[in-house]
């Protein structure tokens, strides 16, 4: 199959970017989207041009490193699918595909399709963990967790931190990402000890990183490749108000 690509090219976050057109012919419809970009980069290198920068790692839909806007949709047209698991059979022969980086003030463009998502790392480091004494591993059954609780916590922990929720949100909000990290630990007994401090610190860091506010349009859930529910945001709001109440009470 043949494709015409319009790809955002930008040297760095301080430089102006622009869309550049590329034509690829004879592509296999079974190729993944990133394999298609690999093919383009091989062509560019042979021709003496600079290859297109983009984020990737495992290419198995697990790590959350890949991510770009494809025809205006985070990760492309397929539901619950990361960019690396998107295949060319989802497009038509001869189609023009618009490829842009994730757009958000908190995700500055590093180069081309590659953005800086370290703001997520700083949110996690502010409280997205459980403080425990290390040493000899405790028995796996020392803290009982019901099956239902474990499943609910896992549904939130499934977030891969790709940033599609931020790129899709009209406000550039990180509420879905942050709430998923808060919720999965708030549900488990290991996370109860620090639940109040965790939610206050993580929400504060989220605001510091200049992410926008959630206005409940729920576009984040629609475009999330893991299908993380917006009910996590409701849980985060509950945890936040609870923490404020307890702080005032004390």
From TrEMBL:
Entry superkingdom: Bacteria
Entry-linked PROSITE patterns: 2FE2S_FER_1, 4FE4S_FER_2
InterPro entries, per the entry: 2Fe-2S_ferredoxin-like_sf, 2Fe2S_fd_BS, 4Fe4S_Fe-S-bd, Beta-grasp_dom_sf, Helical_ferredxn, SDH/FRD_Iron-Sulfur, Succ_DH/fum_Rdtase_N
Domain 4Fe-4S ferredoxin-type positions: 150-179
Cofactor(s) needed by this chain: [2Fe-2S] cluster; [3Fe-4S] cluster
NCBIfam families linked: PRK07570.1
Family listed: Belongs to the succinate dehydrogenase/fumarate reductase iron-sulfur protein family.
Protein name (record): Succinate dehydrogenase/fumarate reductase iron-sulfur subunit
Organism field: Chryseobacterium candidae
């Amino acid at each position: 199959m043949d494709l015409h690509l319009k790809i955002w090219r930008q040297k760095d976050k301080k430089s102006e970017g622009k869309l550049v057109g590329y034509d690829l012919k004879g592509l296999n419809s079974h190729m993944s989207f990133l394999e298609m970009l690999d093919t383009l980069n091989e062509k560019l290198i042979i021709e003496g041009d600079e290859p297109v920068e983009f984020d990737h790692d495992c290419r198995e839909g697990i790590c959350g490193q890949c991510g770009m806007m494809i025809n205006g949709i985070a990760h492309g047209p397929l539901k619950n699918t990361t960019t690396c698991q998107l295949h060319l059979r989802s497009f038509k022969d001869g189609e023009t595909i618009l490829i842009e980086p994730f757009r958000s003030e908190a995700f500055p463009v590093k180069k081309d399709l590659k953005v800086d998502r370290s703001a997520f790392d700083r949110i996690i480091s502010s409280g997205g963990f459980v403080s425990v004494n290390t040493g000899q591993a405790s028995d796996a059954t020392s803290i009982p967790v019901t099956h239902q609780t474990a499943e609910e916590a896992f549904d939130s922990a499934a977030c891969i931190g790709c940033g599609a929720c931020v790129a899709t949100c009209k406000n550039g909000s990180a509420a879905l990402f942050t709430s998923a990290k808060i919720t999965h630990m708030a549900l488990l007994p290991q996370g109860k000890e620090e639940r109040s401090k965790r939610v206050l610190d993580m929400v504060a860091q989220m605001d510091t990183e200049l992410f926008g506010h959630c206005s409940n349009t729920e576009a984040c859930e629609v475009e999330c490749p893991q299908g993380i529910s917006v009910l996590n945001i409701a849980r985060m709001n509950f945890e936040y108000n609870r923490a404020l109440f307890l702080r005032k009470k004390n």
